[in-house]
Design a protein that fits this description.
Strand content: 15-25%
CATH architecture of the largest domain: 3-Layer(aba) Sandwich
Oligomer: single chain
Structural class: alpha/beta
Number of helices: 8
Bound molecules: adenosine-5'-diphosphate, magnesium ion
Shape: globular
CATH topology of the largest domain: Rossmann fold
Largest sheet: 6 strands, mixed
Radius of gyration: 19 Å
Length: about 260
């Protein structure tokens, strides 16, 4: 593997020259994107810039048409799709359009597709789901994330949750599944202000535990509060990148306006 440093000084994720087209729409035209350990990266750009496509490649939903993908300095084949492969590395994505089963209970939503099975030798490979354990873990997640103030139980229907609570539960779920990197696509869009603050707290909580976040938004104010680095995409290309402290909020706002033109 050329140039891969590996070890502690390598980025958690390093994507180089990523391309992805849909028919004749070139959504990504050679994007570079890096995430370091214990870092919150704000991924910014106008609608259609390619943000969602980039993180769908990152999370294995789409294979890249071209480009290089390194995880902790190790070069991996990212040209084929593979969500479970990305999950296996600890890349957990909460999609903008991810539909909770609103009629389903919280514990069913937390464990949908990834159940806890009995590990007892009494039930070898029967695939029996440990419902009591899934309920217990869900209650623990609600408490740990400070969700609902006792109003919510594992058996509450998901439809009862506010938008911010849904994001909080999704982040808690990702941490439960040992995420190294939590990718959030527009987690604060369409939330009330008080809810935005709560979601920003959840995001900072991930970094406090030494894990990383990619925070996608077109709202600069929301990332400004928390991100360590700002990456801007425009028309499927990198349009700028700044670390916190390298520029002021009005400067970043002006840069974003420029690239959106
Ligand atoms: N599944 C798809 N099929 C066809 N075109 C797509 C698809 N997904 C995204 N695109 C197009 O790719 C471009 C980038 O979209 P997207 O990644 O969703 O941007 P963003 O998330 O920054 O708003 C847009 O022109 C969009 O219409
Ligand atoms: Mg998007």
């Amino acid at each position: 593997m050329e140039g891969g440093k590996g070890g502690a000084d390598a980025a958690l994720v390093e994507m180089r020259g990523i391309r992805k087209s849909f028919g004749n729409v070139e959504a990504l035209r050679g994007v570079n994107f890096r995430v370091n350990a214990a870092e919150i990266v704000g991924l910014l750009g106008d609608n259609g810039a390619g943000k969602s496509t980039l993180i769908k490649v990152l999370s294995g939903l789409y294979g890249a048409d071209a480009g290089t993908f390194l995880f902790r300095g190790r070069k991996l084949d990212w040209t084929r799709s593979g969500v479970s492969r990305a999950r296996g590395l600890g890349i957990e994505t909460v999609y903008q359009d991810r539909a909770l089963g609103l009629q389903q209970s919280l514990w069913r939503n937390v464990f949908v597709g990834r159940h806890i099975h009995f590990s007892s030798s009494q039930f070898p490979d029967w695939g029996l789901i440990d419902v009591a354990e899934e309920r217990r873990v869900t209650a623990e997640l609600l408490a740990r994330m400070g969700l609902g103030g006792g109003r919510l139980t594992p058996d509450t229907r998901a439809g009862v949750l506010s938008g911010g609570e849904r994001q909080g539960l999704a982040i808690g779920r990702a941490m439960y599944f040992d995420a190294e990197l939590v990718v959030l696509d527009e987690p604060t869009t369409a939330l009330a202000l008080s809810e935005v603050d709560k979601v920003l707290e959840f995001i900072c909580g991930v970094r406090e535990r030494g894990k990383s976040v990619v925070f996608i938004t077109h709202s600069i104010d929301h990332v400004w509060a928390v991100a360590d680095r700002f990456v801007v995409l425009s028309h499927g290309l990198n349009a700028g990148e700044w670390t916190r402290g390298a520029l002021t909020l009005p400067e970043l706002t002006a840069r974003l306006r420029e690239v959106a033109l």
